[in-house]
Specification:
The chain has 299 residues and is an alpha+beta fold. Strands 1, 2, 3, 4, 5, 6, 8, 9, 13 and 16 form a 10-stranded mixed β-sheet that branches. A 6-stranded antiparallel β-sheet has the order 12-11-10-7-14-15, covered by helices on one side. Helix 1 packs across helix 2. The two termini are 30 Å apart.
């Protein structure tokens, strides 16, 4: 007997909840904000809007389904099942934070604050939840297959991301490494920089686009479903021992960018999740390219 679908509602703590966790009470949080010329009213309103959205989406789950909730901070400890329908209730970034932990599950993005969020990944309103959940389990469910990027280290550590992967120093030091692409002869170019960014078409609406514009790059930005990645070296430093001839490029399916560490410690993290990073030490290497896995986002 097959299991009934399970709706997994993914959310994150609101600004209001973070203020209460820090200051203890509503009054203390209100005093803290007022001392800085801000009112707690808007923060509390957004909190209530988010809580109401969660209540409405939870109520829209069919009675024959199972359901559960998971907070963003617990995603790395949550076990998603193949039959799950993942409902992200929040901001676009929360979809990206969730994507790396999935393996083909359908995702529905619900925008809790239309007009404030871009709505690139949280494309739907809370009132559409019931219809979207039914559609998500249909055989012909309409989804976009969003390209993801992965980093695989030589010790088998692996990291997935929907927007981008960053490799660089954990602080404000200089990263030292050798950089090359699959098929290159030799060890690659020795570089010193503030890190390397490899991004997808989904990430082309954020950090990747910022670097692309800053460089005035002639490379075409990929679309979210394109099997293409762009990469940029940040602030490469020329010296007698380090070069700057490889600071940007494009990767298609089956192509990879290889980096060999020549520093005491570099970190690799995806989509801003620094707490869930790979750590690499001197002599280790990592390959970056298009992941076999994609994110199935309901249209």
């Amino acid at each position: 007997m097959s299991l009934a679908p399970r709706a997994v509602l993914v959310h994150r703590r609101t600004e209001y909840e973070e203020l209460l966790a820090r200051h203890g009470t509503h009054g203390q949080a209100a005093f803290f904000l007022s001392s800085r010329g801000r009112s707690i009213d808007e923060v509390a309103r957004r909190h209530e809007d988010t809580r109401q959205a969660l209540r409405e989406v939870a109520a829209a789950v069919p009675l024959t389904w199972r359901s559960t909730r998971v907070e963003r901070a617990d995603l790395d400890r949550f076990l998603f099942a193949p039959e799950d329908v993942v409902v992200v209730v929040g901001q676009d970034g929360l979809v990206a934070n969730t994507a790396k932990y999935l393996s083909g599950q359908v995702v529905v993005g619900i925008d809790t604050d239309p007009g404030r969020n871009p709505g690139v990944l949280v494309r739907h309103r809370r009132t559409e939840a019931a219809a979207l959940l039914r559609a998500a389990t249909a055989t012909a469910a309409r989804t976009d297959e969003l390209t993801m990027v992965e980093a695989v280290a030589d010790d088998t550590q692996r990291l997935l991301a929907l927007n981008e992967i960053y490799l660089g120093p954990p602080g404000h030091q200089t990263a030292r490494y050798r950089l090359g692409e699959d098929g290159d002869d030799g060890p690659g170019e020795a570089q010193a920089s503030s890190g390397v960014l490899v991004g997808t078409g989904t990430g082309a609406t954020g950090w990747l686009r910022s670097l692309w514009r800053e460089r005035g790059s002639s490379l075409a930005l990929p679309a979210p479903c394109d099997a293409r990645l762009l990469w940029f070296v940040r602030e490469a430093w020329p010296s007698p021992a380090t070069g700057t001839s490889r600071v940007a490029g494009e990767l298609g399916r089956g192509q990879g960018l290889r980096l060999t560490v020549e520093s005491d410690r570099l970190v690799v993290f995806g989509d801003g999740m620094e707490a869930d990073a790979l750590e690499l030490t001197w002599g280790q290497s990592v390959r970056l390219g298009i992941a076999e896995r994609s994110l199935r986002l309901v249209v």
